[in-house]
Amino acid sequence: MSAILARAPCKITQTSRRGYTTRTTAAVAPPPLAARRSGSALAQRSSFAASKIGSSFVQTTRTHAPMRSSRMCVEASGDWVLMVNDVAGKMGTAVVEAAQAKGIKIAPYCLTGPKRDPITIGDVTVELFDTSFDRDEVMQRIKKEFPKLMVIDYTVPQCVNLNAELYIKHGIPFVMGTTGGDRDKLLADVKDAGLFAVIAPQMGKQVVAFQAAMKIMGDRFPGAFKGYTLKVTESHQSSKVDTSGTAKAIVASFKDMGIEFEESQIELVRDPKEQVERMHVPEEHLLGHAYHTYELTSPDGLVSFKFEHNVCGRSIYAQGTVDAALCLMSKIDSGSEQTLFNMIEVLESGDMR
């Protein structure tokens, strides 16, 4: 498939899939996707549309507001650059802000669902490639522009496996913050591919520490709560359609401690009125919160335990996600034999800022 824009001589860095060792060779590569006309108030961008005519793609021209040069996002071809899918979402925006606060460079592109205009976050303007684009072509071009590219995924549950397959195909390491999808298939696909990734249902470091403590209890004290009954309630913003992955993980630990309980028994609270009156969620955080309550009661009803972890806003997840990306970068650069990690392993590694 021919490039749309004229090519210019440059150097590219080639990487091996597992070791990510680098070597520099003379080559030609397409210019940045964000190329623009000097002195123009509007940028003319050429791109591939997803529709086909025979075996070739239709070339279209789109007009957008001017974008900052991608050179602002990367000083050298060997530097790591984060691509966040999707910055149009609240979590994506929060992750970009957290990454910028830690001095991490952000790619000026991302994948999105519906067609959207470019979004400016801090010092970077991000071009959004919607479903009308050929995503294989987009990822190939972005990977050529940024050889050391890493993706953070905060999209929607139904895209988890499709996106992971895309990252695997192009050898792009990633952090999967999106919950849902076929998790067994996701883990198996990434492991079989030998691709570096962090996959976890919970990215908040402190919540993960609590989750790890519960797992240790389950491993070391099997049957400690045998005969007890368990009630689990979780409240999230109404846009979250799936059951909390954190709640599922904690339930698994309680089951190891002897409690009979099924994931289907987890109560999901999504009604804003009930969230305020029953769960005591502040109204200003109805659109972004995560409240979890686990109540255990002895067979005779005379003994009870209650665990809670309540989060308002998204900063705890964004900061943890960026730390997971930093950890993954460190593992790749050090030639780690292990390629697939969870957040407990991220905490244990100490590769965080």
TrEMBL record:
EC class name: oxidoreductase
Enzyme Commission number: 1.17.1.8
Catalytic reactions of this protein: (S)-2,3,4,5-tetrahydrodipicolinate + NADP(+) + H2O = (2S,4S)-4-hydroxy-2,3,4,5-tetrahydrodipicolinate + NADPH + H(+); (S)-2,3,4,5-tetrahydrodipicolinate + NAD(+) + H2O = (2S,4S)-4-hydroxy-2,3,4,5-tetrahydrodipicolinate + NADH + H(+)
The keyword NAD is assigned to this record: yes
SUPFAM superfamilies tied to this protein: NAD(P)-binding Rossmann-fold domains (SSF51735)
Domain Dihydrodipicolinate reductase C-terminal stretches: 208-347
GO CC terms of this entry: chloroplast stroma
Any Pfam family matching the protein: DapB_C
Domain Dihydrodipicolinate reductase N-terminal: 83-201
One function term, GO molecular function aspect: 4-hydroxy-tetrahydrodipicolinate reductase
Keyword NAD annotated: yes
The family this protein is said to belong to: Belongs to the DapB family.
PANTHER family registered for this protein in UniProt: 4-HYDROXY-TETRAHYDRODIPICOLINATE REDUCTASE 1, CHLOROPLASTIC-RELATED (PTHR20836:SF0), DIHYDRODIPICOLINATE REDUCTASE (PTHR20836)
The name this protein goes by in its record: 4-hydroxy-tetrahydrodipicolinate reductase
